């Protein structure tokens, strides 16, 4: 079977790895110049590590990443709750912090071992369905016929648009910000930090290396959003982004399948975006090889929807600015503090969901 994967992000690379280890070498293209240098997703779940263990990628990720031991939740300057992030029921007991560019580099390197390399500076411009295949139209003016095309080409997916698959949902008004920084003294390494300021603004710090953190906040300035102040030694990257919550109405149409951001996007609360893409891609590759592609769309649509719904509930609870939302959040923290079993369960849920 001749397969084209459009997009060399974490989803496309996972699909290529999972096909390659089963003996199917796909063509992978990306319009970028080379591998990404952007550290977008920084949390890798146990489920992703388990899926990536079959290709030998997981052990390399674990070697480089930071195992996040607990989540510290602050109300203003006050530490209101520390949740142990741990589950004994899964492949890796907690969340792994690692910048996305490193994850992608490790995946691409492993892929090379199977003789598959991403073809950079090749853009898919359109598709033409024919009775015996689907023809991909490339930026160089060339075209090639495939049995299957996997659209792992991100939120603005050309594949999705060319296939005429709708991407319903909504865009949130708020602007959020991120910064990747080296800090001194605080926040602690190996802990995830969430601060809810009295203004209602939420600021998060995820450890991604020695003294290095990814900061995210529900305002324009992630570094300034921590009420206790941060000693920042070096800023690697700063930016703002808006959140959309969308899911493709179907993940497949004829000989075309979607996976990753091409199929869904949601808020970074919970850090599941890249992880859902890895799960889509692994499932898709398995089905391509065992001939059960027909059930792919329905299965992954349902699984992703469950996680997206939890993520949306989490976003509303954490970043809600109304008095009611703030009181509910405080009440949950107080309850978890007084009930060790609930505290354990919440930490376990945060790792497993
Ligand atoms: C600021 C920010 C912070 C984030 N933080 C987190 C986080 O903490 N945790 C998390 O899990 N997720 C996070 N995400 C989301 C995460 O980055 C995405 O879910 C993930 O990158 C999706 O991977 P993907 O491979 O599906 O798509 P992408 O990573 O977008 O890759 C798509 C690739 O397709 C290529 N492409 C697009 N169109 C074409 C074309 N026509 N022809 C050829 N190539 C094409 C692009 O160049 C790109 O390389 C964050 C995102 C952002 C923007």
From TrEMBL:
PANTHER family: BINDING MONOOXYGENASE, PUTATIVE (JCVI)-RELATED, TRK SYSTEM POTASSIUM UPTAKE PROTEIN
Organism field: Microbulbifer epialgicus
Keywords of the record: FAD, Flavoprotein
Gene3D superfamilies reported for this sequence: 3.30.70.2450, FAD/NAD(P)-binding domain
InterPro entries: FAD-bd, FAD/NAD-bd_sf, RIFMO-like
Name by which UniProt lists this protein: FAD-dependent oxidoreductase
Residue runs in coiled coils: none
Domain FAD-binding: 2-202, 237-287
Names of required cofactors: FAD
UniProt entry tagged with the keyword Repressor: no
């Amino acid at each position: 079977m001749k397969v084209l994967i459009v997009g060399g992000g974490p989803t496309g690379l996972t699909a290529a790895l999972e096909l390659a280890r089963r003996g199917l070498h796909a063509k992978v293209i990306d319009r970028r110049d080379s591998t990404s240098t952007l550290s977008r997703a920084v949390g890798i779940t146990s489920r992703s590590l388990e899926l990536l263990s079959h290709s030998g990628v997981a052990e390399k990720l674990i070697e480089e990443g930071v195992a996040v031991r607990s989540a510290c939740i602050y109300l203003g300057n006050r530490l209101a709750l520390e949740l142990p992030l741990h589950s004994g029921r899964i492949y890796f007991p907690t969340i792994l912090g690692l910048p996305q560019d490193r994850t992608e580099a490790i995946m691409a390197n492993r892929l090379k071992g199977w003789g598959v390399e991403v073809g950079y500076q090749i853009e898919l411009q359109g598709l033409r369905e024919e009775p015996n295949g689907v023809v991909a139209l490339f930026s160089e003016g060339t075209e090639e016929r495939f049995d299957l095309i996997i659209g792992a080409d991100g939120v603005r997916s050309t594949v999705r648009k060319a296939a005429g698959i709708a991407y319903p949902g909504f865009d949130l008004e708020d602007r959020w910000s991120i910064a990747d920084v080296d800090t001194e003294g605080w926040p602690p390494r190996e802990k995830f930090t969430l601060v809810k300021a009295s203004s209602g603004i939420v600021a998060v710090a995820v450890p991604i290396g020695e003294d290095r953190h990814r900061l995210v906040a529900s305002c324009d300035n992630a570094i300034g959003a921590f009420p206790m102040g941060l000693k920042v030694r070096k800023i690697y990257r700063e930016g703002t982004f808006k959140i959309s919550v969308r899911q493709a109405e179907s993940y497949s149409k004829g000989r075309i399948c979607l996976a990753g951001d091409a199929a869904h996007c949601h808020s970074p609360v919970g850090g599941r975006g890249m992880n859902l893409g890895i799960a889509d891609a692994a499932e898709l590759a398995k089905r391509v090889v065992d001939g059960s592609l027909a059930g792919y769309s329905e299965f992954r649509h349902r699984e992703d929807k469950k996680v997206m719904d939890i993520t949306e509930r989490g976003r509303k609870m954490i970043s809600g600015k109304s008095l009611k939302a703030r009181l509910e959040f405080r009440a949950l923290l107080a309850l978890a503090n007084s009930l060790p079993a609930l505290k354990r369960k919440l930490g376990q849920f945060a790792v497993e969901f």
